[in-house]
């Protein structure tokens, strides 16, 4: 059979070099953007929770009225 070359160390170094190169391309958001997006996500979650609670109450009272 053929001889295999163990180049695992070279692959790991190449992987981490590529990882570092990609990591430098990341554009991190500024504080204002993070704050605005956080407020949007929290308010959206609260609104969705309220909508689900209202629908739950309507179904609960509807079923108790029918039964």
Automatic annotation (TrEMBL):
List membrane-spanning regions. 38-59
Q: Which InterPro entries match?
A: SecE_bac, SecE_sf, Translocase_SecE/Sec61-g
Question: One MF term in GO for this entry?
Answer: protein transmembrane transporter activity
Kindly list the GO CC terms recorded for this protein.
plasma membrane
Membrane topology type, per the record? Single-pass membrane protein
- Which keywords describe this protein according to UniProt? Cell membrane, Membrane, Protein transport, Translocation, Transmembrane, Transmembrane helix, Transport
Q: Name one GO biological process term.
A: protein transport by the Sec complex
In terms of Pfam families, this protein maps to: SecE
- Predominant cellular place of this UniProt entry's protein: membrane
Q: Which residues form the signal peptide?
A: none
Q: Where in the cell is it found?
A: Cell membrane; Membrane
Q: Report quaternary structure and partners.
A: Component of the Sec protein translocase complex. Heterotrimer consisting of SecY, SecE and SecG subunits. The heterotrimers can form oligomers, although 1 heterotrimer is thought to be able to translocate proteins. Interacts with the ribosome. Interacts with SecDF, and other proteins may be involved. Interacts with SecA.
Report the function annotation for this chain: Essential subunit of the Sec protein translocation channel SecYEG. Clamps together the 2 halves of SecY. May contact the channel plug during translocation.
The entry sums up its family as follows: Belongs to the SecE/SEC61-gamma family.
Record-given protein name = Protein translocase subunit SecE
């Amino acid at each position: 059979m053929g001889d295999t070359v163990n180049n695992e160390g070279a692959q790991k170094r190449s992987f981490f070099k590529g990882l570092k190169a990609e990591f430098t391309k990341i554009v991190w958001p500024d504080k204002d953007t993070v704050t605005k997006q956080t407020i949007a996500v929290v308010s959206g979650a609260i609104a969705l929770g309220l909508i689900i609670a209202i629908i739950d109450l309507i179904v609960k009272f509807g079923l108790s009225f029918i039964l």
